Amino acid sequence: MPEDCIISTTDLNLWYHEKHALQSVSIRIPRNRVTALIGPSGCGKSTLLRCFNRLNDLIDHVKITGTVTLDGNDILAPGTDVVTLRKKIGMVFQKPNPFPKSIWENVAYGPKVHGVKDKGELDRIVEESLRHAALWDEVKDRLNDSALGLSGGQQQRLCIARTLAVEPEVILMDEPCSALDPIATAKIENLIEMLKQEYTVIIVTHNMQQAARVSDYTGFMYLGKLVECGKTVQIFEHPAEELTENYITGRFG
Amino acid sequence: MIVKTTDQYRGTLAISAGHARYSLVKEKSIKTVLFFTAFFAVIVVTFILLFLLRDGLPIFVQAGPISFIFGPDWAPTSVEPLYGIFPLIAGTLLVTFGAMVFAVPLSICCAIYIAELASPRMKNILKPAIELLAGIPSVVYGFFGLIVLTGFIRVTFDLPTGETWLAASVLLGIMALPTIVSVSEDAISAVPREYKEGSLAIGATRWQTISRVLVPAALSGIAAAIILGIGRAVGETMAVMMVAGNAAIIPDPVWNILSPLRTLTGTLGIEMGEVPIGSAHYNALFGVAVVLLVITLVINLSAVAILRWLREGRKGGTARRPFSSPQTRETFVRVAGMLLFALLLVIFVAAAPWWLLPMLLLAGGTWYAGRPYLSENTVQRIAFSFITAATLAVLAILVIILQDIIINGLPAISWEFLTRPPLDSGRAGGIYPAIIGTLYLVAGAIAIALPLGVGAAIYLVEYTREGRLTQLIRTGIDLLNGTPSIVFGLFGFAFIVLYLGAGVSMLAGQMTLALMVLPTMIRTTEEALKSIPMALREGSLALGATKWQTISRVVLPPAVPGIVTGAILSIGRAAGETAPIMFTAVVFSSRFLPDSVLDPVMALPYHLFILATNVPGASANQYGTALVLLMLVVGFYAIAIAARTHFQKKMRA
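The joint structure predicted for all components is written out below.
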């Protein structure tokens, strides 16, 4: 890949209990592009995503070898400050997970834990983040209502706004549309299109059309291995591997 | 479209990265503090063991372990004192056995009814009723037993006194009912739906499904429930002491349920208050406590082990063996059969009217002869009517106890009764100092137990991975939970009152009660924390929040209702306990309120105990005190239950 790359992994292996969930994965994620990870369920794409912000730390019995670098620094090194790391690398989850707080509190949470106390400043961040997540017009009159009252799609955009509010460089999205209806999905996809001008987006999806629509680069994973990775156009039209072609054309099983 | 940030904001975010080192120190120290709150349970258990052994070992040396445990005579105050606790051990075992004979069939029927037969509305009546039964303080049970149950037994069997093994067993059985019912009901309800549907789908009746699929599948859970019930019965002090007659003899013949007897706990409750500190008798009582503690620990740990094995198995998913092998099932059936046989035997030898035997033989004969001709539907009808009758009996017990205390207690209650100090040894006057004393005691206890319990639970749920250390801490909490309340009383006396020099004081009582409710506090908080979805923690951590920020801002706020419920339950429990404060904090009569935490106080449960056992002619005030205590405790439980349902509904909405 010729482009400037922000995250790269070298020979990354991950075991969960006895299961070898990632097998020497080496991938380079280009800056300010959308990279999609596709593959059948259980192939390790979400696990790979969670290596980038070290969220796998929360899970028992995980063993990792290899390196993951962000701007050239190894983030798996023991001295890494995961708090700072996760501020740089935001994440949107499969199921919307707004906190049981007000809409305003949800978005302001991130800046607050990073030390922003000024109410005016927080108000401004909340508004800009919500605007940026294309949610402002729908919620501006009820910022103090509980976030749990929003629809699924709105909740997911709120989670995106919440992520934007801490100004990450990279946004990880773990099947962000799998719990949403087609209209909400379309809104999120448009949003991703806009986000890539400013952020690096890595999206895990098992919807191949979605990968084709939103991404610049695509990696195909199968049984814990990265089979192939390249420009989306190339992967979908001229895959190098037969396995990839079978998966993309639906001849699989 | 870019989020434009002012320089100020950028500056703050940049600084917070620089603050990493500082916040790391803060995170570490918080973790350390929480670790110590969790480890506290282990420390307390160690201290309990140490202090009981310190004062109890001399008697094992002096009298010899064999003659102490198997000696046939307990006469510590005679001219030539004898310290043989065998009659006490036998008394404990016999009373517990009798209680189980009474409680197990009733409880299992009641559990089946709640889990499988009850309509939702009936469930909404039965479950709080069972919880209410669990909430009645043991001294109130003892009072009811002393006044009503022993009277009934005395008249029915034409005895000089009704204070007998039978009375103690029935009363303990009632007290063990709620534990057995609720744990068994959980076990039955937890049987996967598919089993039930599978059985019904091949045309089995509901009763066949219950008796051949659901109950066998839930058998280990039911066994654990019974063991927990046994633990409750073995450790109970006040109620047993008030109705068992307390003669340190082995019934003659050994199945004579109309003989009085004395338990280990009863011995401690009666004699601890009057024994010279440091004497051989004093050491012997601590020896009794050691034996009691060992028995209850073995019982409780085995129940915990079974329940934990069940829970882990269920989490593990598919490949686990069925709940019970055919052998264990067979053993279980055999044991149940023996219990039933024992029940019948005991009834006949001791007390049955002459016509009962032929009647039962006739019924059994008819059943055996008629069984092949009965349709499955008829069998089901018979079985269901037995189960329903048992459930109604449990409800009736609750109603009888409540109505006796309410009807007799209400006339005694007046403004003066609630606001005046007692006169004439409590026969006249009021119970104001006792009410206030009890409130002081529970307020202090919860003030100590709440931070410790919440801290320990946070540590266990949020900070540790399951390992040897958590195992140790959990075992410590389980042990603390299984320790009988009278043992807490002895420990409080030996450690806080004497060793720390707090004297018989409110503070000593508060600390002792706090230790006793600590396991409840930890467990309910743990449940509350575990019910917060992992996704919320991940969401917060993914935004770069630190662990403590995540816990304090995202996890704890929605867990507060659960924690508060646990705290109120603990308050209710502490308010009704007598044994832990009997030697550490209370005086019987005091016209004044305590001036400081180092003064002794009056307390409702102890006041009721003394009025009921030591003050003749205080009948009206006994019932008044019992009613106030009952209202207070039940009030706390009602608030807790209401709060829980309210928040559950809110969560679902």
